[in-house]
């Protein structure tokens, strides 16, 4: 039985019980959300997790961090360091997006070492299968795509991104209304090029019931990928993106009916003033399924600072329905991130998620901030540094310019406003 099966039968499960403790909610809250598809617990059967999480309405906003090898740099040791750095920085989940090297061996080693929910993208492996035969991506077979899903689920990942919602109808809208940046999803681009080259429907859409059945075997959560997410502000909210979104909503119903958990993936690059409407539309189109967004990035002109643009968009998205923020690092659009980029990306996304938790009235979210404010008022530096979201950075920064009087900071010194008399 999957977690949804158990929830519908009124039964709990050790995974539900542990997750409830971590979320500080009653197991009944999670059971009800699993039943109606508004909460997902990405935790495959058989994976030992140190930190479990649930994604969905009424819970804290979660943060995901991506890492993985590339064809240009296949260094498993370095990618493992990034994974561990992301987890240490507070990521709730990580995704292995490896495209270079022995993908299955890499995935198995990562999975064995991963202590939080682990996701992956099977389509990259399908493309790798074609390349290993000396063929271009367009020579992938439908069997390659389905076999890749099977391998990832069999290897015990907790959730898989599968690009099932890209259809010939959506492709027709792309052709009718040309985008500025086209298809920017790596997996989406693979499928779209295959569909056009072979003049066929998306096999992952046509064989979606088989995908569901594979995921059901290991209770692997389906993360329905947004192959047509906008990669430029100019492309946000176009007909192709919306067509895919409603297709994902229909597919989600089918998966939930078979007891498989679902998350919906979303944009992308979206102008700030469009974010709220896009989040609310997703909730309607997908019956309140957990929404997993990449950013959204609110500007296209900030390479090197895209983690800041991501945090700005992420807070607004999460106050309007998004439940899961995929981080963006300072290296986005420039290069493969290093471990410091990973750390900085997680911190930016965590700040965005926490700000949204406060705005959403999540019980206890503001307590952290109030404790920090009381410590500031008392000039209790030890407590302030411990409460900082990145304590080590805060300690290093203060140490760079310690004032003569350690009771204050070097910015205001003896003119510290908080040091004055209580005159009000």
Annotate the secondary structure layout.
Layout: H1 3-8, H2 14-23, H3 27-36, E1 39-40, E2 55-56, E3 62-67, H4 76-88, E4 93-96, H5 103-113, E5 117-120, H6 122-132, H7 142-154, E6 159-162, H8 168-176, H9 186-198, H10 203-206, H11 208-218, E7 221-224, H12 239-257, E8 262-266, H13 272-285, E9 291-294, H14 306-318, E10 324-326, H15 339-359, H16 365-377, H17 381-387, H18 391-400
Parallel strand pairs: 3-4, 3-10, 4-5, 5-6, 6-7, 7-8, 8-9, 9-10
Antiparallel strand pairs: 1-2
Kindly list the characteristics that best describe this protein:
TIM Barrel, globular, 18 helices, alpha/beta, 8-stranded parallel β-barrel
Task: Describe this structure as you would to a colleague.
The protein has 424 residues and is an alpha/beta fold. It folds into 2 domains: 319 residues, TIM Barrel (Alpha-Beta Barrel), CATH 3.20.20; 55 residues, no CATH class. The chain contains 18 helices and 10 strands. Helix 2 packs across helix 3.
Shape: globular
What's the structural domain tally? 2
What is the CATH architecture annotation of the largest domain?
Answer: Alpha-Beta Barrel
> N- to C-terminal separation?
62 Å
Please give the CATH class of the largest domain. Alpha Beta
> Strand fraction band?
5-15%
Q: List unreliable stretches of 5+ residues.
A: none
Order of helices and strands: HHHEEEHEHEHHEHHHHEHEHEHEHHHH
In short:
By secondary structure, the protein is α/β, with parallel strands linked by helices.
């Amino acid at each position: 039985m999957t977690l949804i099966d158990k929830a519908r039968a009124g039964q709990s499960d050790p995974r539900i019980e542990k997750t409830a403790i971590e979320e500080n909610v009653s197991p009944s809250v999670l059971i009800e959300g699993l039943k109606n598809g508004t909460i997902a617990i990405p935790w495959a059967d058989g994976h030992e997790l140190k930190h479990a999480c649930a994604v969905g309405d009424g819970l804290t906003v979660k943060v995901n961090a991506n890492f993985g090898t590339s064809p240009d740099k296949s260094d498993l040791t370095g990618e493992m360091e990034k994974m561990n750095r992301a987890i240490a920085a507070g990521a709730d989940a990580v995704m292995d997006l490896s495209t270079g090297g022995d993908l299955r061996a890499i995935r198995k080693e990562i999975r064995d070492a991963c202590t939080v929910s682990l996701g992956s993208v099977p389509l990259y492996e399908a493309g790798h299968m074609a390349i290993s035969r000396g063929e271009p991506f367009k020579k992938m077979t439908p069997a390659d795509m389905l076999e890749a899903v099977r391998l990832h689920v069999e290897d015990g990942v907790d959730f898989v991104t599968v690009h099932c919602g890209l259809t010939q109808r959506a492709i027709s809208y792309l052709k009718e209304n040309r985008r500025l940046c086209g298809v920017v999803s790596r997996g989406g681009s693979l499928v779209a090029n295959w569909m056009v080259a072979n003049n066929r429907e998306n096999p992952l859409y046509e064989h979606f019931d088989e995908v569901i059945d594979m995921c059901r075997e290991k209770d692997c959560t389906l993360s329905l990928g947004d192959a047509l997410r906008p990669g430029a502000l100019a492309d946000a909210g176009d007909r192709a993106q919306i067509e895919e979104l409603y297709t994902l909503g229909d597919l989600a119903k089918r998966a939930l009916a078979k007891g498989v958990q679902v998350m919906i993936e979303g944009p992308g690059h979206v102008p700030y003033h469009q974010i709220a409407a896009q989040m609310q539309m997703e909730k309607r189109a997908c019956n309140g399924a957990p929404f997993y967004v990449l950013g959204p990035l609110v500007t296209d002109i900030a390479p090197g600072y895209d983690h800041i643009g991501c945090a700005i968009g992420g807070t607004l998205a999460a106050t309007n329905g998004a439940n899961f923020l995929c981080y963006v690092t300072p290296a986005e659009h420039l290069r493969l991130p290093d471990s410091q980029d990973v750390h900085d990306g997680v911190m930016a996304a965590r700040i965005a998620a926490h700000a949204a938790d406060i705005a959403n009235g999540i019980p206890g979210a503001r307590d952290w901030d109030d404790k920090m404010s009381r410590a500031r008022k008392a000039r209790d530096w030890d407590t302030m540094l411990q409460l900082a979201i990145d304590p080590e950075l805060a300690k290093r920064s203060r140490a760079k310019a310690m004032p003569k009087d350690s009771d204050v900071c070097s910015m205001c010194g003896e003119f510290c406003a908080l040091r004055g008399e209580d005159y009000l």
